[in-house]
Amino acid sequence: MIQRLGKKFSLMLIVLVVSICVLQIGYLQAANVDELVQQMNQDNTVARLHAIKALGEAKDAHAVAPLIAVLKDEKCGITAANALAKIGQPSVTPLFAALKDGSPIARRNAAVALGKIKDSSAVKPLIAALNDENPIVRRNAAKALGEIQDNRAVEPLTAALNDDSPVVRRNAALALKGMGTSDTVVVDILHE
After folding, report:
1. What is the pTM (predicted TM-score) of this model?
2. Is 41 helix (H, G, I), strand (E, B) or coil?
3. Is residue 170 within 8 Å of 138, Cβ to Cβ?
4. SS3 (DSSP) at 182
């Protein structure tokens, strides 16, 4: 009896694993971007996340606008930012606009994507984002500037070492350290 239950359980487990794999392959092999965008607009968060990830893997510029719209989504916004980063250059200009969005979630996710893309044209908009009212946006802008490593960011990042938020100061210090700045102030902030 126990042996039969073990075999049934093993069979059910195999069926479950195969079903999950087929589901994921189906999302990754959707016929086109339009299908994935439709899947991205479902109520099911897991299905949305799979579709967003697949849009990034597709690296199709037609996916940029729908992904930009998702940046402000609390559950899926960071996944959309990662997908936009995978798409790369076609995402940059729309991400500049997202840095000025009314939603702080969209702004913080836009900064993350720009940092991962590492396009030097993002330096000026990210420097402006260091003055955002939201500390998470400022933190992500500092981190993104550190990832891009453009010397135009040294002075604004140095100014950010005096930010009211400790998380902004720390990320500005880490960005400066990554850019080769070894000032005592940077070292002190990193040891806070």
Report:
1. 0.80
2. coil
3. no
4. coil
Q: Is 121 helix (H, G, I), strand (E, B) or coil?
A: helix
Taking every pair of Cα atoms in the chain, the longest distance, rounded to a whole number of angstroms, is: 73
pLDDT 10s digits, 77-105: 999 999 999 999 999 999 999 999 999 99
Integer CA distances (angstroms), 40 to 45, 72, 79, 82, 84, in order: 9, 14, 11, 15, 14
Spatial separation of the C-alpha atoms in residues 19 and 115, rounded to whole Å: 36
With tokens 């009212």, the residue in question is 133
CA neighbor of 97 nearest in space, from 106, 88, 105, 89: 106
Residue 139 and residue 131 in contact, taking contact as beta carbons nearer than 8 Å:
no
Please tell me whether residue 134 adopts helix, strand or coil conformation. Answer: coil
137 CA to centre of own chain? 12
* Euclidean distance between CA atoms 36 and 188, whole angstroms: 48
Please report how the helices 166-178 and 135-148 are oriented relative to each other, as an axis angle in degrees rounded to 10: 0
Residue 146 structure tokens: 């550190």
CATH topology of domain 118-192: Leucine-rich Repeat Variant (1.25.10)
Cβ atoms of 39 and 47 within 8 Å: the answer is: yes
Spell out a b/e string for 60-85, using b for 16 or more CB atoms within 10 Å of the CB, else e.
eeebbebbbbbbbbeebbbbbbbbbb
The predicted-structure confidence for 17-37, as pLDDT tens digits, reads as follows 545 554 454 444 445 899 999
